[in-house]
Amino acid sequence: MMPARKREPRTEAQYYTIAEISIILGLGQTKVRDLIKREHLPTVTFGRAIRVPIDKFIAWREQREQRPSSVGLREEAT
Predict the structure, then answer these.
(1) Residues in CB range of 55: below 8 A, 6 or more apart
(2) For the residues of 25-61, what is the DSSP string, one character each?
(3) Cross-strand bridge partners of residue 50
(4) What's the CA gap between 54 and 11, in Å, rounded?
(5) Are 50 and 21 in contact (CB under 8 A)?
(6) Which of 2, 26, 36, 45 is the most exposed place for a label (fewest CB within 10 A)?
(7) DSSP 3-state assignment of 15?
(8) Distance between CA atoms of residues 35 and 33, nearest Å
């Protein structure tokens, strides 16, 4: 008897996993979880599985890219 084959999804993915976000941003998974908690990276949970809606991730990332970086903007004390 042949093993059952997995079905391919009928539609394109609507969510990223934490591992996928980690690869996209070039960050570790721990840092991605930190972004979820501290920077309000939008998520949806399915039981214990955490997923990031692709459309909300894109909007979140674009918002972050619009903010000026605080790196190098601190003036030295005189």
Answers:
(1) 14
(2) HT--HHHHHHHHHHS----EEETTEEEEEHHHHHHHH
(3) 45
(4) 14
(5) no
(6) 2
(7) strand
(8) 5
> Residue-wise pLDDT tens for the chain (78 aa)?
666 666 665 567 899 999 999 999 999 999 999 999 999 999 999 999 999 999 999 999 999 888 876 555 555 444
Query: What's the whole-model pTM score?
Result: 0.69
20, containing H or E segment: helix 18-25
51's CB contacts (< 8 A; 6+ apart) are 15, 16, 17, 43, 44, 45
Contact by Cβ (8 Å): 60, 41: yes
Element (H, E) at 21: helix 18-25
